[in-house]
Amino acid sequence: MKVALMTFHNALNYGAALQVYASQQAINKLGVDCEIINYVNQYRQDAYSMSNHVKEKLKKKEFKSALKYCVGSLFMNKRRIKFERFYKEKLLITEKSYTSSSELEEINGKYNKFIVGSDQVWNHSNNGKDFAFFLDFVKDYNKKIAYSSSFGLATIPEELKGKYTTNLSQIKHISTRESYGVKLIRDLTRRDAELVLDPVFLLDKKHWESLIEKKRIKEKIIFCYTNRPSQFEDFISQTGFSIDGYKIHKLTSQLKIKDFLDTNVKVAYSISPIKFIETIAKSELVVSASFHCISMAIILNVPFVAVLTGDKGKDERVLNILRITGLEDRILNERMTINDINKPINFHDVEECIDEYRKKSIDYLKNAIHS
């Protein structure tokens, strides 16, 4: 049996890289051949083009932002090389590339099933309002599967609701990875979608650890992966946590000059996806607003503090996995103390909980593929 996977397969984003790798691995373990569709529309292509961002900022006369993107391109290019190597070595992708739904129509007879997911493939701000990510090019309703597809949104714009309703209604097996997603699908289609785990959880700790170097490190690491200004600094000031004796590995687009000058800080903006996993695995503490960073900390049994952004759609992904694992007390809040941070996590109970949800998620995927 041959299965085609539609997802964000070449993004320069750590969560995207890990989810596409895990998706293909998990599907292959079900005894089928999974091939990732090499699909990139113009919107997605421009998303990681620093020169495009510079041009847009210059048009708006936002010269400071344009300069920031110019400097950032040096780091982004280094990241690009490492990501492309990871994708080449770890993924099986179609030789032919596609840029539109009409081009994709030719592959209808080549696969037994088509799967879309995971990641925020149903976020119109991420996919460029492209309904190829809803498998609109697949002619046979029975061949369409959505696995852990995410909206990353709390609401759908009024002008897009019709297209969302039509396309979601035409996917036979439908699942999502957050409660908001279940609600959105019910509101739009009156269908009850399955709530499943993100694909990174379909691979266990042993699998992820097999990808990284076993060499021990001497320094004590705090890994900080944030997406808003001063999130790590707010964590320090709110909790009084002392970073003395730690090396801070910072991964953020909000880097400051002092981060490059501080000998206790290691800028990790351009690390590879494998190094990303390795850094988490070898950290004493992870402080992050990233869903996949927090997820990998849970899988690898690393203490963490989750930072919410205030964006309901995006935060729901984090909240959902923390509810499932009973780790909501790891969310940064004004009452959090050093004792709360240092409180040991019962990862044995967490793993038992994940095992239960993993089995349900794999059974859903297996039944959808073989039905």
* CATH class group of the largest domain: Alpha Beta
Q: Main beta sheet, described?
A: 7 strands, parallel
- Class per helix and strand makeup: alpha/beta
Percentage of residues in helical conformation: 40-55%
Number of strands: 12
Could you tell me the radius of gyration in angstroms?
Answer: 21 Å
Given as residue ranges, the uncertain stretches (5+ residues, pLDDT < 50) are: none
Mean pLDDT: 94
Could you characterize what this model shows?
This protein is an alpha/beta fold and 371 residues long. The protein folds into two domains: 2-203 and 356-370, Rossmann fold (3-Layer(aba) Sandwich), CATH 3.40.50; 205-355, 3-Layer(aba) Sandwich (Rossmann fold). 45% of the residues lie in helices and 15% in strands. It contains 16 helices and twelve strands. It has helices at residues 14-28, 42-47, 50-59, 63-90, 101-104, 124-127, 161-169, 179-189, 205-209, 231-239, 257-261, 273-281, 291-299, 312-325, 338-342, 347-370, and strands at 2-6, 33-39, 93-98, 113-116, 144-149, 173-176, 194-195, 220-225, 246-251, 265-267, 285-288, 304-306. The strands form two sheets. A seven-stranded parallel β-sheet has the order 3-2-1-4-5-6-7. The chain has a five-stranded parallel β-sheet with strand order 10-9-8-11-12, sandwiched between helices. It is globular. It starts with a strand and ends with a helix. The model has no long low-confidence stretch (mean pLDDT 94).
